[in-house]
Amino acid sequence: MSVPGLTAAPSRRTAVVWWRLPAALWWRSLPFRVIASVLVASLVVLVLSGFLLMQQATSGVMKSKQEVAENEARQAVNRAQQTLNNANLTGDDGTVDTLLYDLANGFANRGGGTSQYEVVVLARSQTLTAGQVAVDSIPSELVKQVNESNDLLITPTEVHWRNGQPAEPGLAAGSALTLPGVGRYQMYLIFPLTQEVTTLRVLRNAVVTTGAILIVLLTLIAALVSRQVVTPVRAARQAAESLASGNLHDRMQVRGTDDLARLAVSMNYMASELQKQINTLEELSAVQQRFVSDVSHELRTPLTTVRMAAEVLHDAREDFDPIAARSTELLQNELDRFESLLSDLLEISRFDAGAAELALSAVDLRGVVARVVEANAALAASNRTTVVVHATGEAIAEVDVRRIERILRNLLVNAIEHAETNPIEILIAGDEEAVAVAVRDHGVGFQASQAKQVFHRFWRADPARARTVGGTGLGLSISMEDANLHGGWLTAWGRPGQGAQFRLTLPRTAGTILQSSPLPMVPRDYLGPSDPVRAEAAADAALPGPTVGAPETLVLGGPLATSGSDQGRGGS
Questions:
Q1: Residue 25 above 90 pLDDT?
Q2: C-beta neighbour count of 63 within 10 angstroms
Q3: What would the DSSP string read from start to end of 209-247?
Q4: Element (H, E) at 36
Q5: Taking burial as the number of CB atoms within 10 A of a residue's CB, which of 140, 312, 448, 569 is the most buried?
Q6: Is 153 in the same domain as 94?
Q7: What Rg, from alpha-carbon coordinates, does the chain have?
Q8: 387-391/424-430 β-pairing
């Protein structure tokens, strides 16, 4: 049994697709726009021209026919009146009717010249007709006017036939005849427009046929012209796409000296200049990478020597005065930071050189997160910050453990630095395709427009803010490179005064292309129905996700109460 509500939907979709197809072609295809514009413009011009031509032709043919019909009718009426004037009749109706009938037949037989007509005479006792024309072919208004006037009157009419032929347009001319001593009679001449209608029909068919041929020819011409114009433009587009894909040696063919040829010359010149600039930048980048790598390696040896001396001084600091002992501790801390900076620079140089590789193994990210949190527990305690981990089930994935630990360590240290003693939450979730870890702090935050800049090298949201945990300024940049190396996502969200959230999403199986994340990008605690500014973020975070069980909660650094809202998860 069919359901009307269900069968109507495909029809609506089909109609929508049918209407969208020309619109899509209009915006995507220049030849289609040119051909369609020429076709529509030509169609409008031809329709208007054909209409005006038919109007003029119809008016001319009808005017000529009316003039001829009027002349013949006047001649026929004059001859009939002269015949009646010469007739010596009494008032006998039979004799008069015989004369009028013979007169009508005589005129009808003469109507085979340039304009054939039928004759109708209205006598006092009967209507006399010659031929097959019906009396109702004479308009009643014309009969009334002829009865009141002595002039020849002519008007359009519809000719009806007594033998059942289809009615056709015609002209009716009428005038009064006076029989001396007897009275007035009315004579009508009916002129069928058969030949004129046939002529106009042939002319209309010729106009339509000619217009159709012109439409086809103009469409072909427009297609040819658009092809001549679009082909060089497409070649320019293909050359630009080839340049964008890295084929810096591709060039356009230059043919002729017209505007399109000059376009090709300009494109080739631009490609040459771009190639020079890109080659120069690549050389500078290679020099810069070698410089950073060489400097980092060269600094290793003196750094080792300085560290050995600093460790000797640090071990003997109890024998120094307080100022010297404090200086020894500061020297040791700065050497640790300097060594971290050199390590990060070497890692960055490996990423830039494309030499970074993965050592994959299947691990549960819950254990990785636990190790990272335990390793930074002292740092969190020194900043009076509580770290809470919410895990919603297993999160096993094929990853490079060393790199993932580095990502999570950088995210956690960054959160501790900016949390301003507020609690930090780490969320762990997974679905069939991916696993995700989100680090949420409630500190200073940053502008929404800075979400991508936070991963730039040595970037700070507040340049005047000093580093409190000894970071190098390269941690988030290296984390982004590590995430990309896994085929994963590392994204950031922040609002001033509302804190920030960094979300790491990784495929469960190496090489899988991510489609979504098990955790939302916008923190759930930020989404509030009473705040209209958050409506857009709430809509993005409201996408459905798989149902998860109660989270496993690990609290480090101090107690933190959890609510039921922390147990769900949404899609990104």
A1: no
A2: 10
A3: HHHHHHHHHHHHHHHHHHHHHHHHHHHHHHHHHHHHTT-
A4: helix 30-86
A5: 569
A6: yes
A7: 50
A8: parallel
* Nearest in space to 337 (alpha carbons), one of 461, 243, 471: 471
Place of tokens 């941690």: 475
Q: Are 96 and 167 in a shared domain? A: yes
Asked whether residue 280 is assigned to any structural domain, the reply reads yes
* Residue from 499, 411, 490 nearest 447 by CA: 499
Cα–Cα distance for residue pair 86/143, rounded to 1 Å = 26
Which amino acid appears at position 141 of this protein?
E
The parent domain of residue 294 ranges over 248-356
**Which residue carries 């500190």 as its tokens?**
443
CATH number reported for the structural domain that contains residue 213 in this entry? 3.30.450.20
Q: Is 472 part of a structural domain of the chain?
A: yes
Q: What is the CATH number of the domain that holds 305?
A: 1.10.287.130
Boundary (domain end) residue, out of 310, 339, 356? 356
8 Å CB contact between 449 and 537: no
Supply the DSSP symbol for 445: -
Q: How many domains does the chain have?
A: 3
DSSP 8-state secondary structure symbol assigned to residue 308: H
pLDDT in tens, 411-426: 999 899 888 889 999 9
Do 440 and 544 belong to one domain?
A: yes
Tokens describing residue 38? 């020429």
Residues 156 and 72 in one domain: yes
Higher pLDDT residue, 7 or 335? 335
The CA distance from 214 to 43, in Å, is 9
Sign of CA dihedral 215, 218, 219, 220: positive
Taking only the tens place, the pLDDT of each residue in 268-298 is 888 888 888 888 887 877 777 677 667 666 7
As a whole number of Å, the end-to-end CA separation of the chain is 41
**Contact indicator for 554, 370 with CB cutoff of 8 Å:** yes
Alpha-carbon gap, residue 192 to 171, rounded angstroms: 6
Q: Residue 224 burial (CB < 10 Å; 0-12/13-18/19+)?
A: exposed
**Which two tokens mark 506?**
């990784």
Residues 164 and 297 in one domain: no
- Percent of the chain scored above 70 by pLDDT? 77
Condensed to tens digits (0 to 9), the pLDDT of residues 216-259 reads 998 898 888 888 878 878 888 888 888 778 787 878 778 777 77
Residue 18 placed within a domain: yes
CA separation for the pair 28, 430 (Å, rounded):
41
DSSP β-ladder status, 552-556 and 489-495: unpaired
Under a CB-based contact definition with an 8 Å cutoff, are residues 543 and 503 in contact? no
**Coil vs helix vs strand at 301:** helix
Contact yes or no for 446/454 (Cβ under 8 A): yes
Instruction: Using the 3D structure, point to which of 247, 282, 312 is the last residue of a domain.
Output: 247
Q: Based on the fold, state whether residues 461 and 471 are members of the same structural domain.
A: yes
Do 190 and 276 lie in a common domain? no
Please tell me the distance from the alpha carbon of residue 62 to that of residue 197, in angstroms, as a whole number.
10
Rounded to an integer, what distance in angstroms lies between the CA atom of residue 275 and that of residue 243?
Answer: 9
- List all residues 6 or more positions away from 215 whose beta carbon is below 8 Å from its beta carbon: 39, 42, 43, 46
Residue 2 lies in a domain: no
State whether 405 and 553 are in the same domain: yes
Q: What is the pTM of this model?
A: 0.47
